[in-house]
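User: I'm new to structure prediction. If I give you an amino acid sequence, what do you actually give back? Let's try with this one:
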Amino acid sequence: MTRSFPVARIGWARPCRTVVKALGLVLLFATATGEAMAAPPPGGAGLALPNPVGGTTQLTWTILVLLSVLTLIPAILVSITPFARILIVFHFLRQALGTQTAPSNQTLIGLALFLTYFIMEPVGAQIYETALVPLEQGTVSALGAVELSSGPLKDFMLKYAREKDLALFVELTKSPRPRRPEDLPMRVVIPAYMISELKAGFQIGMVLFLPFMVIDLAVAAVTTSVGMLQLPPVVISTPLKVVLFVMVDGWHLIVGSLMKSFY
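Assistant: Good question. You get back a string of structure tokens that encode the predicted 3D arrangement of the chain. For your 263 residues, that looks like this:
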């Protein structure tokens, strides 16, 4: 007996709200950067370019910065989310299986994006409540909202950044030792988080390689001992690795382990 799920009750309300939150965050950073560039310095000697209609060029600067931020979204996604770790693990998995282009790059990137959304959705909701809601109500400026939004992101990255990596960038910036990790600036937290994620991705990839490497060595030893020198061992080992991966439900195990490493 099959179980029916109430599909009609799910709707598209929550995904749409999430997309709006993400777009609002991008607009928040663009507006804040535009305000910072268009605002004159405290001395009052700032550059105010005349507008043909009699206003200032603040709106023009905001649009320019918005377009620039949109081009930097891929770099921001890789820098402050688990996307890099997930994609590195998938790349090592495909290399270990020896399937070359299966799954395709588009498939792996799409899966990595949705897994990243699954992990970062609570952080995005917290940023929306902390920064975007006060900005919409007019209680804080765009620059103040950016400062408020950096708190949840910093807490997330500090949770997975190694103390050794944080200490490295504190030393490189010649900053005084903070009393607590939350006092670290974002220019220290982001690169430390990135190299920590790279190390974690390579560690998981190395563990994935071991069982498949054993199969490659066993097949190579057998084909060499029976004199099958003209037959490449990969021709035999690749189907065996795929069969083993399917039998143990590899995708379920790998994705489940990746998600549990963030919770």
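You can read the tokens as a compact description of the fold. Here is one thing that stands out. Residues 31 and 62 are 6 Å apart (CA to CA).
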